[in-house]
Amino acid sequence: MAATPAAHSTSATHKAAAKASITAKPSVNSVKAWQLFRVTGKTTGIKAGSKVTLQQKQRGKWVTLPASAPVARNGAYSLGVKLGLKGKNDLRIVNGKTASAVVNVTVR
């Protein structure tokens, strides 16, 4: 009887491993103000057709920018971005409560 809960916890762990995740990679590390660049990445556990949105850290808070893209069938996305805040910009991609790791792009 002890084997059944162990098998259960393994499948629960497996489900947790399949939890939604997002990666993000900017096409450049440094851009001129308002110069177009791309942020691309892959998602897992997020439905194809769902939107991923760009957020920027401003004064210690995450602010949603008007840049989003649909998730493709293979989980990939690509979105064009233009930033005007000079200096180091902390960015991330979000879908609901799921967020990518923070990436940095410097605007000069």
Question: Secondary-structure blueprint of this entry?
Answer:
Layout: H1 3-17, E1 21-22, E2 25-26, E3 30-31, E4 37-44, E5 51-58, E6 61-70, E7 76-81, E8 87-95, E9 98-99, E10 103-107
Parallel strand pairs: 3-10
Antiparallel strand pairs: 1-4, 2-4, 4-7, 5-6, 5-8, 8-9, 8-10
What characteristics describe this protein?
mainly beta, 14% helix, 50% strand, four-stranded antiparallel beta sheet, globular, six-stranded mixed beta sheet, 108 residues
Number of helices: 1
Largest sheet: 6 strands, mixed
Structural classification: mainly beta
Strand content: over 45%
Topology pattern, helix = H, strand = E: HEEEEEEEEEE
Head-to-tail CA distance between termini: 64 Å
Shape field? globular
What percent of the residues sit in helical stretches (DSSP H or I)? 10-25%
Q: Which ranges are low-confidence, i.e. pLDDT below 50, for 5 or more consecutive residues?
A: 6-17
The total count of strands amounts to: 10
The overall pLDDT average reads 89
The Rg value, from CA coordinates, equals 17 Å
Commentary on this structure:
The chain has 108 residues and is mainly beta. It contains 1 helix and 10 strands; from the N terminus they run αββββββββββ. Strands 3, 5, 6, 8, 9 and 10 form a 6-stranded mixed beta sheet that branches. Strands 1, 2, 4 and 7 form a 4-stranded antiparallel beta sheet that branches. It is globular, with a radius of gyration of 17 Å. Mean pLDDT is 89; it is low at 6-17.
Summarize this, please?
The chain is mainly beta. About 15% of the residues lie in helices and about 50% in strands.
